[in-house]
Amino acid sequence: MSGLPSFRAVMLMVIAVLAVTAAAGGIVVIMGDGLVRTVQEPVRRQTTPRQQQPAPRLDQLVPTAEPVKEFGKGGPGVTATPPRVLAIAAASVPKQTRFALGALKHVQKVIVVDAGAVKVSGTALNLLAVDPADFRSWTPQPVADQPAVWSALARGELVADAGSMRKFGMILGAMYQVDGGPRLRVAASATLGLTGVDGLVSAELGKSLGFAPGVAVLLHGKAGTISEAGVRKLLGKGSQVVVLDVAHRTPKQQKTPKQQQKPQTTVNVGRPGSYLELYKAAATRCPGLSWTVLAAIGQVESSHGRNNGPSSAGALGPMQFMPATWKHYGVDGDGDGKRDIWSPYDAVPGAANYLCANGAGRGGEKLRKAIWFYNHSWDYVNKVMGIAQAYARTYA
């Protein structure tokens, strides 16, 4: 036994090794299974002032970034010719029937588009698949005048009806998984004025989703004059006809106060209006990841964009990404064609993407390890989880 070093000597040697490792800035990591990548980043320690900043109300804190540059700005104006009647035929409408519909009394314009229904988590959405250039004039003037709506369609994203957004609790900017299909980003919401229609997608996307070609008919003319019976007769059995200008067909003395009010057209494009909505939308990129974790990281890293760095370690933006990590995991979250490390609309979904790549969506210990990869500190993990629990209680 005398030939073995004493316990005190062994401890002194361990302390000496750790001191040398720390001085060199190294990190000793013992990895479990499931994490197949490492990020060579220093621990980003938050300063005392940042830790002492009170957390603001997420639903009142508005993210800031440069305006989205959209296609079509400054182009020629579009005169809205809103549909007065919407019909869904049992099969594709033949060319001869289209001519007959156009010849109906008081009909000034006719358009035929594809239509179909998709399910998102079991919830059915009725969609029209349209060509942005052809369909633009068939929407209310404020919608027709908003280039971002039509840019979103051209990019293969979803423009949802504002009423359906409220009805189904959808979030602007969120990604939604179509049952048996692709993931769709809600890039804009607008008052479409199309009863029974939950949103618009591009004609190209509609084909890939298997929509029925040429079954939806919209007719424009002087309000209250197009014959519903005439449309139904031409389209035949099995067709559904919806009068969209019902307010103009009701005698004034019989109109309810609600019918007498002119409906307000709303258009919301591209970006969530608060950090709360932004975190919720970004979390949809990683099924199983709670938005509260993203919000907690946003609070610890920058107090939700109030301290964007650069940090002493070189981390940048509201989610404090190292540039090398951003290069691999950054995303264009708002569809403006850029992956901007400084923009919360890109950085927050980028953080969701990075966490998801490390297994955060699986929860439990996988989530804790994914947060550790975000900043190599178990104290950091515990702090994030604690703040996330507080957010869950506050915004339950």
Give the gist of this structure.
This protein is of the alpha+beta class and 396 residues long.
Molecular structure report:
The chain has 396 residues and is an alpha+beta fold. The protein is 37% helix and 16% strand. The chain contains 17 helices and ten strands. It has helices at residues 7-23, 48-52, 95-102, 132-135, 141-144, 147-154, 162-168, 203-208, 228-235, 246-249, 257-260, 275-283, 291-302, 323-329, 344-357, 364-374, 378-394, and strands at 85-88, 107-120, 123-130, 158-161, 175-177, 183-190, 199-202, 212-221, 240-243, 267-269. Strands 1, 2, 3, 4, 5, 6, 7, 8, 9 and 10 form a ten-stranded mixed beta sheet that branches. A hairpin with a 5-residue loop joins strand 5 and strand 6. The termini are far apart. The relative contact order is 0.16.
Total strands: the figure is: 10
Beta-strand content: 15-25%
Main sheet characteristics: 10 strands, mixed
Q: Output the number of helix runs.
A: 17
Mean pLDDT value: 82
Tell me, what's the shape? elongated
Determine the structural class based on helices, strands and strand pairing. alpha+beta
Could you list the spans in which at least 5 consecutive residues all have pLDDT below 50?
1-5, 7-40, 47-52, 68-75
Please, what is the oligomeric state?
Answer: single chain
Helix share, percent: 25-40%
Element pattern in H and E: HHEHEEHHHEHEEEHEHEHHEHHHHHH
Q: Kindly, what is the distance between the CA atoms of the first and last residues, rounded to a whole number of angstroms?
A: 62 Å
Radius of gyration, whole Å: 28 Å
